[in-house]
Amino acid sequence: MKAEGIAVVTGASRGLGRALAIEMARAGFEVVATMRDPDAGADLSNEVGGGGGGITVTRLDVTKPETIVLPEGLRVLVNNAGTEATYLPVEAVPMEDWRHVFETNFFGVMEVTRRAVPLIRTTGGGVICNITSASLAMSVPFYGVYRASKAAVQTMGESLRAEVAPFGIRVVEIMPGPVDTEMLSNSARLPEAAEIPGYESMAQSMYEGRSGVDPFITPAATAAAAVLEAILTDDGPLRSSCDRLGRMLLSGWQDDPEVSLNAK
Questions:
Q1: Domains in the chain, please, with CATH?
Q2: What tens digit of pLDDT does each residue of 240-261 get?
């Protein structure tokens, strides 16, 4: 597809979402950068420079349906908004944490997506891009809540891809690895699982092994360029990554689904 028309990016106040909003605007899209606090994106349009498109910042909280207003003429939706929970074993995660994460990472994505489909269909086709996680390719302990929410988006996207293909709508999934974002920085800590009897050594191993991803950390702008390429490539695959480690994990996923960061 050509980089033109209206594109909506959720969770565009920072990290990959912010970088992608800028990249898409520079390429030629009229980007609606959505976020819970529009003040966080007040300077976004200034970062586009001499690109062919532009950026409009609007408030949208995926957990509050009354704030979800999508524009007519929509061609591309990027479901980027997301959150995570504390790093605890499944048995120790409070049910409210499961519900909180799923409310944003899955139900929020679904609310935006189901509203976007008829708009993109009316426009004549386009792309729905779901940002999941390369952690789905690993048996990572203490990430059960986050991974489960992203896996729900993944399987929904597979069905959605089959449903909307006749309308000229492509569904693509991006599985980022270590992209230089605030969420990645926050992960560089001893998992809260260290406080749960029986999980102390596993949590310590996870913490010590976390530094292994540092050589693979990819700038958000570089990752955003790869996401844009996936959106624009009409004959591209359903599933891809936007960084080196993510691509490595994705390529070996079916060979060894039990790979884990703390594997010895």
A1: 6-180+218-247 (3.40.50.720)
A2: 999 999 999 999 885 555 554 4
